[in-house]
Fold:
Amino acid sequence: MTTAYSRCPVGASTQGRVKAAPSMDRYEPLRRRTIALVGLMGVGKSSVGRRLASALNLPFRDADAEVEAAAGRSIPEIFAALGEPAFRDGERRVIARLLEGPPHVLATGGGAFMNDETRGLIKQRAVSVWLKADLDILARRVGRKDSRPLIAGKDPMEVLKEQAAVRYPVYAQADVTVETGDAAHHITVGHVIEALTSYLGEPAE
Structure:
């Protein structure tokens, strides 16, 4: 579901003096569980995730990078040598391992949330956020790179349309949906924090 955004003050005035709340207190409810970012390629899960983790003082983990580290080769190399099923199996195992750890911000691969087991683990152990943007924006972004195996030699827009038709109904099961548009990543981070705050509730006074 898509949550409404809300803003809360960071301090209050008492007898003419400003009583400043500790900067991280307002985010304490957001740091109790892992925050898993899901969405199509090019939506900014890694870039937004790094900035979100910094804003919340949480570790950041990128599932794709973790898969590459575990396999000792790049994702294009995994696809070329072992195929997509092997990559998906490794992705599933890596995400399961990461979700066993302390709370962090996790950027998942575009297909990770499609796996029933992975989706179930995220529902149990994390708060999921679907980052959503118009396909023309995503096609422009992913078209700048040639390192994505799923669009190699293909029309990015056609691939994204096919993926959206299959994946959007599943992404819609995420706890929070944030429409990113073409906003700068730091703006999207603010929207994610507002949406998560609304979803998880404000800290107690």
Remarks:
- The two ends are 27 Å apart (CA to CA).
